[in-house]
Batch of 4 targets.
Target 1
Amino acid sequence: MIKTVLFDLDGTLLPMDQKKFVKAYFGSLAKRLAPYGFEPEALSAGIWAGMAAMVKNNGEVLNEVRWWESFDAGFGEKAIKSRDELEAYYKEDFGGVRPSCGYNPQAKEVIEALKARGLRLVLATNPVFPKAATEHRIGWAGLEKSDFELITTYDNSHYCKPNPDYYREILAKIGASAEECLMVGNDVDEDMIAETLGMKVFLLTYDVLNKHEKDTSVYRQGGFSELMEYVEQICI
């Protein structure tokens, strides 16, 4: 019986056009860090490099450490001097990126319905953002931090999707077995990989990401209504 449901955030609970989001995000960050001498293109490259370093993280250190190792290596003294400013950006300015994302009221309805059933909920968003940035995005989706038993961020995680160890770390933290968990997400590579551990998976089809054009017919899938129908089947 399923006791825990893990949810992706971006493109799942929070409607998102990734290109639009990235443009707004990088643009606002570049504006904030311009006084420190960061050129927009170089800054964008540095952010992507930091994210790639986190995705490759082998678990020895937190993703946050991998991020700063990469950022400091790319920008040296300039990165060190701007550290406080960068952290302040996520608390103060990142909220301005909200118009680049959508909103689906069904997300909150589903979360509330699952909570009412007594299911444990985890926000299994790829932990490449600081806590403040993730909390902003939770709010944009119309949700609360308290909705989730665990929220993965770059300062509490040692792995990233699609590494199966990312999911193993979650299971260890919440004391659950893979067989009693359902992972819900829109990314075929990053979210459906949870199935290899023994989790059930559900592909939310509002904004499917399928970089490698895999056959998605093998997954239970659909919108929030179909998700709740599936939950009814596997939680009885």
Target 2
Amino acid sequence: MRAMILAAGLGTRLKPFTNMHPKALAQVNGKSLLQRNIEYLQQFGIDEVVVNVHHFAHQIIEAVESNAGWGSTIFISDESSEVLETGGGVLLAKPFFEQESSWLVMNADILTNLELGKFIAADKILSEGAENYIATLAVTNRTSSRNLLFNSDEKLVGWKNNSTGEEKWSNVSNKISNPETIVAKAFSGIQIIHSSFYKALTLTGKFSLIDAYLQVASSNTIGFYDHSDGLLLDVGKPENIIKAASLFK
């Protein structure tokens, strides 16, 4: 299985560091987030990794080359001309996954101890026999400003911004039918995507993975894997970089 690390973002929450550097090169105990996640993937036998780049792209490329990919084979998906957001970035990287039936995608600014072996096994069980299965999203029950919304069959049907009240639905009927059965989960920024994703996707250009998932979920299945018993830290904020130093040695 190949993986993709989403590292093209502007990292505005990590200013002033990201005024001069990409967020993927922020350091935790002497190792960049990019290095940590490449080495994390290696623990589960994933050593072919696509990294998309935009913000200070040359710094990421230089870090990868000077460190020989930290022992992995690294492919660069170049978004230097325009940042395409998470969904557009995965779409641009399509050529790297032409031979893959499924692959893992994760945000560069996530640190976790999620047991990928269990996640991959769960995805296999969920997708077996499921019609038009697109992806399995890693989630937890933590409090979040935004939630993914699943129905009683544990299929993705919507998204909600808890701060503003904004909602997005894969189908209008999901909003009005049996709202009491909707289950809210916090997305971990980690997912296993199947090749059927590219076949079902009609969005182009710049768009988020959430919008992509909601578009394809209207007629396809997207499930979830809950790892609330594990450790997950969004290190896209300065205070969490400090916190990460005590959790990830």
Target 3
Amino acid sequence: MGKNTIITIGRQCGSGGRDIGIALAKALNIPYYDKELLKRAAKESGLCEEVFEKFDERPTSSLLYSIVMDPYSLGINANGIDMPINHKVFLAAFDTIKNIADEGSCVMIGRCADYALADHDNMISCFLFAPIEERIKRVSARMNLTPEKAKDFIIKTDKQRASYYNYYTTKKWGATNSYNFSLDTSVLGNEGTVELLKHIVEHV
């Protein structure tokens, strides 16, 4: 593994992305960033952590949407109208992602990290997916939901992640040409997927 190798993981809801990311970071003995990234972005930007959680990987299609979602999203400063709060949150997270990448190797989950680090010399991006049936089983068990409610949750979450990614990047969420690798986690399971990613990272 090269110096400052960053592994970014995009994932379908219920594909095991979080667990796989944690296990991969542990196997490689490097830091893992998911919600931790939001806490750091909040601290570095001066915006409160609750604001980051509210807009975390949420869809943004227009200025009107952000106004409806948050009536305080428009602020007035000396130069006139300030940018919406959701844009501030994205830019703060974007800067934090770059700062973290400069510090050393790590695994980052979601939040357009692959796009933010597009110019990084040692960034490996992957997207994890699985058949809907497998994801329903996983989410049902994890959240104690009926299969129907689990499916609704998966569809809603994936739609939010796709809207967020497609809005803030020039790429399409989940498309194979948006990432270095796309892996079906149901083929190898979590452990097998971790081993494959570890092998890729160590040999790229």
Target 4
Amino acid sequence: MSLLSNLGGLFGGGQGGDAAGASSLVSVAGQLIQQAGGVQGLTNLLQQHGMGEAVQSWVSNGANQAISSGQLGQALQNGGLGSVLSEAAGKLGVDQNQLLGQLAQVLPHAVDHLTPDGQVPASGGGGGFDLSALGGLAEKLLAARTA
């Protein structure tokens, strides 16, 4: 099963569901990154909660290590981003645990996408992250699924 093979079921099914689900998940990932203070803020947060090796794999140019939805949920809750998760789950009409399961698969790709040179971009606070930087990620993930 690929990352996006479950999106249709999670976000309403059908071919259009895959695209809408991918866009929704990428949007939520972007919101989390923005609220954490950019890529640097999110990677620092996750490293502080024991996911340093996995996060470094996302930033580097190698394969991305997986994290569990439980690890991600705990880190985000303890890092003050629980309200972002609750709000996103409510807007999407899904259980927060379902959302975390999908985000645990999407966030590594999002961080990887935002660090193409294998370096976390330096940012000065939460205002420096531009959500449009994730613009092509949903299409990239969908293309990888169909390839």
